[in-house]
Amino acid sequence: MKNCCHGHGNHNCHNNHGSYGRGHGRRRELFEQKYEEYLRSTSIPEFENDEDYENWLTKTEEGQRHFLHIQKIKEEVNREIPWGGRRMNAGRKSCGNKIPFNRRIDESKLEILKDYAQKHNITETEALEIAIEKLLD
């Protein structure tokens, strides 16, 4: 049986150390890179099952050092790629010179506008703009 960190897919630990081992992205890639460097510099015993690994991790000094090293790697990754903040290009996009337009309109006309928007898979604002453009043609 492979040890916990060298590829046994059925083992809980299979490079699955919290949120750093799941998903995709720069944080995961950096964690895996640093973790692989750590694995090359240490030796981890092979385990028959998950329970053996958990016992080693929690009840032996070597296992606790292994766990602490994983925590240190996570802290390094957090320093290099911090959590939170705005994503690039997040938020509302500029759509020209739009201004608020609040007017009272007959309910039947509003229903026509809503139906048109839904039928053409557009917003009500876009439907209103199309109606205005048709008036100008």
3D structure, described in words:
This protein is mainly alpha-helical. Among the domains are: 18-80, no CATH class; 107-136. Helices cover 52% and strands 0% of the residues. The protein contains 5 helices and no strands. It has helices at 26-40, 50-59, 61-80, 107-119, 124-136. The chain is rod-shaped. The relative contact order is 0.09. Mean pLDDT is 80; it is low at 1-23.
Largest sheet: none
* Strand composition percent: under 5%
Category by helix and strand content: mainly alpha
- State the end-to-end distance: 76 Å
In short:
By secondary structure, this protein is mainly alpha-helical. The protein is 52% helix and 0% strand. Helix 2 (50-59) packs across helix 3 (61-80) and helix 4 (107-119) packs across helix 5.
Question: Strands, helices and their partners?
Answer:
Elements (H helix, E strand, L loop, with lengths): L25 H15 L9 H10 L1 H20 L26 H13 L4 H13 L1
Helix pairs in contact: 1-3, 2-3, 4-5
List keywords for this structure.
single chain, 137 residues, mainly alpha, 5 helices
